[in-house]
Amino acid sequence: MHSTISFIIPLIYLLTAFEGCYSDANLPGIAQKLASGDRALSSIVFQVTGNVYPKGYYYVTVNIGDPPKPYWLDLDTGSDLTWLQCDAPCTKCLPAPHKLYKPNKNLVTCMDPLCASVQWPEPHKCESPNDQCDYEVQYADYGSSLGLLVKDWFPLQYANGTVVKPRLAFGCGYEQEVEASMDPPYTDGILGLGLGKASILRQLNELGVTKNVVAHCLSAQGDGLLFFGDEFVPSSGVIWTPMSTTKIDKHYYLGTAELYVGGKTSGVKGLPIVFDSGSTYTYFSAQAYKKLVSMITNDIKGKKIYSANEDKSLPICWKGSKPFKSVQDVKNLFTPIMLSFEKSKNVRFQMDPEAYLIISKYGNACLGILNGSEVDLESVNLIGDISFHDKLIVYDNEKQKIGWAPANCNKFPIINNDGVLDCGRYCKHDGSDPDILQAYSVA
Question: Residues of the signal sequence (predicted)?
Fold first, then answer.
């Protein structure tokens, strides 16, 4: 279920009719506190599990239903629809860690405004007001999910321990496909955090549960943290760039950038950049990819590292005189890569070797930046999980900007055995801004 590329191509079909009813959660107390600026109730924190290699995905555990049951969902800022495999009944479901979700007269109707959102850009038509809302999503790696929209309870815990239980809409997927080269185990589904109205983040914001802000910190060593709300967003030290007003299918589009390798311009400019946590690797358009490979190849000449064509872990791998144990063994042989945003003065996104190399099971260093034209991404350049390593990435939909800063994601606050955020010396809940950049500074 984890997709190596989550860049989404929306395809929606209207299927059979099914009558259902539901009601929204009433959360006026929480909404009033957020409106008054009470940040103590503003953030919901999830522990992240996973890695880029060998798993190829990061996921969070989300409890859904009454009584609540746990599900593992890929965290995905590249798509807006959250869905999980379900017994509706299931036509084609894949091996997953938990039992299928079972809908219980909680279907979203075709007339619901969220239905138009999940069916965009196709025309939204309802033959009857009580028709169910059907969806089909296809991802750039040829994975897909077909199902219907339902609503259920999502018990969530704020950082101070307060629990809230909103009723949210998500996809109940009864027919799934994954890219042929993927192997199980799969997750239970996708946690959509993109820009559309169907996004869990957008729904929580409209219910007054939290600010429309999401951030993740993914460790190069594996695992990390995800949070909704702005309580842990640093008040300083973050590099910010506006979200582009030119939308690319409801994705987090940062505008265009110029590619630099080792401090030297590649001469490739005007690269449309999208941040996508649902993509395991980073994808450059054909021209940028070819120039990148050429410049890296020239840079490592004479450094006693050689092509490892026999290693098929990724398209390009290198070997040394003996197997590498970690990226630390090879990082000094490679140079930083940088994207300089053309409409934001002095805004640069740097990828050190740890943010574009993996060490394969054969002990070779492999390039985790791939040719996007080979997966039909055309001119879009996706920045994926590998390039987010040990960075705090903040998607601030309230202020329409995206930010990042170096961070030791292993030192982020952890959730203790009681399910409560244990900040220790790293954060505080006195209403002031916690300076997490100082607390989680890279060692």
Answer: 1-23
| Whether residue 437 has pLDDT greater than 50 | no
Comparing 100-109, 139-148, 151-160, the range with the smallest average pLDDT is: 139-148
Instruction: Tell how far CA 7 is from the center of its chain.
Output: 10
Instruction: Map out the domains of the chain as residue ranges.
Output: 8-234, 239-406
The model's pTM is 0.86
- Cβ-contact 184, 75 below 8 angstroms: no
The phi-psi region of residue 50 (left if phi > 0; otherwise alpha if psi is between -120 and 50; otherwise beta) is: left
Does this chain's domain 8-234 share its CATH topology with 239-406?
A: yes
pLDDT of residue 191: 97
pLDDT tens by residue, 375-389: 888 899 999 999 999
What does the pLDDT read at residue 139? 84
CB-based burial, 61-95: b 16+ in 10 Å, e otherwise: ebbbbeeeeebbbbbbbbbbbbbbbbebebeebbe
- β-pair partners for 63: 70
Class of the 8-234 domain? mainly beta
What is the CB neighbour count within 10 angstroms for residue 26?
A: 12
Say whether 276 is catalytic: yes
The dihedral region occupied by 153, where left means phi > 0, alpha psi between -120 and 50, and beta the remainder, is beta
User: Residues 343-357: pLDDT tens digits?
Assistant: 888 899 999 999 999
**Segment holding 205, helix H or strand E:** helix 200-206
Residue 76 a catalytic site member: yes
Distance CA 74, CA 85 (A): 13
Candidates 76, 131, 385, 390; catalytic one = 76
The DSSP output letter for 188 is: S
306-330 pLDDT, tens per residue? 999 999 999 999 999 999 999 999 9
Q: Say which of 152, 276, 311, 385 is annotated catalytic.
A: 276
